[in-house]
Amino acid sequence: RRGMLATEDYLDALNWVEGLGGVEAAFKRSDANLAVLDAWVTKTPWVEFLAADKATRSNTSVTLSITDPRVAKLDDKGQQDFVKKFVALLEKENAAYDIGGYKAAPPGLRIWCGATVEAADLEKLTPWLDWAFEATVAELN
């Protein structure tokens, strides 16, 4: 019975991608999503891509480092705590969920930008990221 549900999920996903225009359209959506974050990172002084080299940057699971000197000077645990507070603020406001970096990764953010995400939603997210950063960094003083 579970096998049939998994098969139906798989078929539904394939139909959804086909409805977008196929795999190439799905790639284009992910690229457009990455472009939203790229434009935001370019103008935002407190954050950078973890993958500095564009050739190695994912267009789906986008990872970001908080590079502001007030955060960067903290030890690893302090940076991890900063990210936890930052993420908790966003979750409390229902603005973003599960965007903390992976446990084994350097402290930072991880934002899903795959084809299932709308670029407009990422555009709505970036002001929230700025707000959460300012609120969290204010607690450092």
Commentary on this structure:
The protein is mainly alpha-helical and 141 residues long. It has 5 helices and 3 strands; from the N terminus they run ααββααβα. The chain has a 3-stranded antiparallel β-sheet with strand order 1-2-3, covered by helices on one side. The longest helix has 21 residues, at 23-43. The model has no long low-confidence stretch (mean pLDDT 92).
Terminus-to-terminus distance: 57 Å
Largest sheet: spatial strand order:
1-2-3
Put simply, the count of helices is 5
Low-confidence stretches: none
Give me the oligomer status: single chain
> What's the mean pLDDT score?
92
Order of helices and strands: HHEEHHEH
Question: Which features would summarize this protein structure in a list?
Answer:
single chain, 141 residues, 9% strand
In short:
The protein is built from 5 helices and 3 strands. It has helices spanning 2-20, 23-43, 69-72, 76-92, 119-138; strands spanning 47-49, 61-66, 109-112. Helix 2 (23-43) runs parallel beside helix 5 (119-138) and helix 4 packs across helix 5 (119-138).
